[in-house]
TrEMBL record:
The family this protein is said to belong to: Belongs to the sulfatase family.
Listed PANTHER family: N-ACETYLGLUCOSAMINE-6-SULFATASE FAMILY MEMBER (PTHR43108), SD21168P (PTHR43108:SF8)
One GO molecular-function entry: hydrolase activity
Leader sequence segment: 1-21
Claim: Cell membrane is one of the keywords in the record: no
Annotated InterPro entries: Alkaline_phosphatase_core_sf, Sulfatase_CS, Sulfatase_N
Keywords per UniProt: Glycoprotein, Hydrolase, Signal
Superkingdom of origin: Bacteria
Name under which the protein is recorded: N-acetylglucosamine-6-sulfatase
Originating species: Ferrimonas marina
Tagged with keyword Signal: yes
Residue ranges annotated for the Sulfatase N-terminal domain, each copy included: 40-369
Stored PROSITE patterns: SULFATASE_1
Length: 516
């Protein structure tokens, strides 16, 4: 017996605007909330951090004592997701409060649209001193200061854990600054120094600390190498026998690809060692969280500062036979998200509602005592953390747009709720997917051909396309390919053979007998 799926609580407008119509306002207008006080904000973002790679969640080997302290003193938003599991689109959604098809930063190569509007611009106009430290990654070859930030320290593209050559520089407020050592340590130190400069200021501050870590190729600091020797185990669901009978054909083919277990990054890299490097690289991030918390205490603003931590997307270490992200499976789209605000939110809480990266900007607006702009898709999750009864979404939209450079990953449209996830693909002859996440959290039993779930599939399909229809989402945005095609397969592991079609798509007899 299927469970009746609730309709989405938000407005499902079906008006589709032209593909390039802008949703951004022409000017920055702020609306203070009467009587509200602007609070200091620290937003910490890491790259490729899995939702479960935290010590307090009972991870089998990763230790994150300072991240754990945020959960102990604040709130763990245990069902946090990104609307596109890719660096630049996710960051654009964080900064704009918009779905990817609206802000139109669809890949990692191009710069953001000229008319884009960031939450930092509103905070700046409201009197905040704002700073960006670290990875921007909207524009692969650009690190110039962006609007909305009083202080800017960044680098081109992904950046480098260590300087790639002598004299390699970062961009500090439009000037060149030499990177001297391990980038995570440097960003932590620059962030602490900037915070200390705000101690005697009459202005509230907003720090956006955006780490390169823990993006591939995972490189730990020298002091952390080997800290997990002999302790690493791979996640479950990474063997061919784990595929269900209705798993997509593209998924089984992708196993032997740039993003697959059988040919990872076109190499024979050992995924267990790779996972260890990843875990050890995070240790410096965790140390930095401790440094920032201690600095806020020394400044006397700890109790009244909102700290939010999250990852920009997930990462797979073998689930579904894949590595990396992009796809709509849980380890790809689900991220760690924690917050603390001692003067406003009680500690040791867990929020179970589905929250997303589009909710960050509206949440920061509430902390700043401002009404969120009407054009944003997200909403503040502070009331959830405070235990208030508010109307919240039943599910959210996930999109990923096909990149010619990585042809093994199709265009993905997915609707993820608290129980069901429906996923469909564009331009692909393959099966759709429906998973009951309560019964099947590893997403191994595709229910798309199960007649008991026919109503659920139709309701989720209708809701998905209604969401896409808003502001040009039914128009597929495209970009010219950039870089090299990662389209090779490895013959030694069955690379010259394609996967079979899913069973429910193959007929034993014609379905029509009246064709003439």
């Amino acid at each position: 017996m299927q469970t009746k799926l609730p309709l989405w609580s938000g407005a499902l407008a079906t008006l589709a605007l032209p593909a390039q119509a802008s949703v951004f306002p022409d000017s920055i207008e702020i609306t203070p909330v009467p009587g509200a006080k602007p609070h200091n904000i620290v937003f910490i973002l890491t790259d490729d951090h899995r939702y479960d790679a935290m010590g307090f969640m009972g991870h089998p080997f990763i230790q994150t004592p300072h991240l754990d302290s945020i959960a102990a003193e604040g709130v763990h938003l245990e069902n946090a997701f990104v609307t596109t599991s890719l660096c630049s689109p996710s960051r654009a959604s964080i900064l704009t409060g918009l779905y990817t098809h609206k802000h139109r930063v669809i890949d990692n190569q191009r710069e953001e649209p000229e008319d884009i509007v960031y939450f930092a611009e509103y905070l700046q106009k409201a009197g905040y001193t704002t700073a960006l430290m670290g990875k921007w990654h909207m524009g692969e070859e650009s690190d110039h200061p962006r609007k909305g930030f009083n202080h800017w320290l960044s680098f081109e593209g992904q950046g480098h854990y260590y300087p790639p050559y002598e004299g390699y520089t970062l961009n500090l407020n439009g000037e060149r600054l030499e990177q001297k050592g391990y980038i995570t340590d440097e960003l932590n130190q620059y962030a602490v120094e900037w915070l200390k400069q705000q101690k005697d200021s009459d202005q509230p501050f907003m720090l956006y600390l955006s780490h390169k870590a823990v993006h591939a190729d995972f490189t730990p600091a020298e002091r952390h190498k080997g800290m997990y020797d002999g302790k690493v185990t791979l996640p479950a669901n990474h063997k061919p026998v784990d595929y269900g009978p209705n798993s997509p054909r593209w998924l089984r083919d992708q196993r032997n690809s740039w993003h697959g277990m059988d040919f990872p990054y076109h190499s024979e890299v050992d995924i267990t060692t790779y996972y260890q490097n990843y875990a050890e690289a995070f240790a410096s991030v965790d140390e930095g969280i401790g440094m920032i918390k201690q600095t806020l205490k020394e400044m006397g603003v700890y109790e009244d500062t909102l700290i939010i931590y999250m990852g920009d997307n997930g990462f797979m270490f073998g689930e579904h036979g894949l590595i990396d992200k992009r796809v709509a499976y849980e380890p790809s789209i689900r991220v760690p998200m924690l917050m603390q605000w001692p003067s406003q939110v009680e500690g040791a809480q867990v929020v179970s509602e589905v929250v997303a990266n589009i909710d960050i900007a509206p949440t920061l607006f509430e902390a700043a005592g401002l009404e969120p702009p009407a054009h944003m898709d997200g909403q503040s999750f502070i009331p959830l953390a405070q235990g208030k009864e508010i109307q919240w979404r039943d599910y959210f939209l996930y999109v990923y747009y096909w990149e010619k450079n990585f042809p093994q990953s199709p265009t993905v449209f997915s609707l993820r709720g608290d129980r069901f996830k429906y996923t469909t693909y564009y331009g692909l002859w393959d099966t759709d997917e429906l998973y009951d996440l309560k019964k099947d959290p590893r997403e191994t039993n595709n229910l798309i051909a199960d007649p008991d779930y026919a109503d659920t599939i139709e309701e989720m399909k209708d809701a998905l396309f209604a969401l896409l229809a808003e502001a040009g989402g039914m128009e597929i945005p495209m970009n010219k390919p950039h870089g090299w095609d990662r389209n090779k397969r490895y013959r030694a592991r069955g690379g010259d053979q394609a996967a079979d079609f899913p069973a429910h798509m193959v007929l034993d007899k014609p379905e029509r007998d009246n064709a003439h």
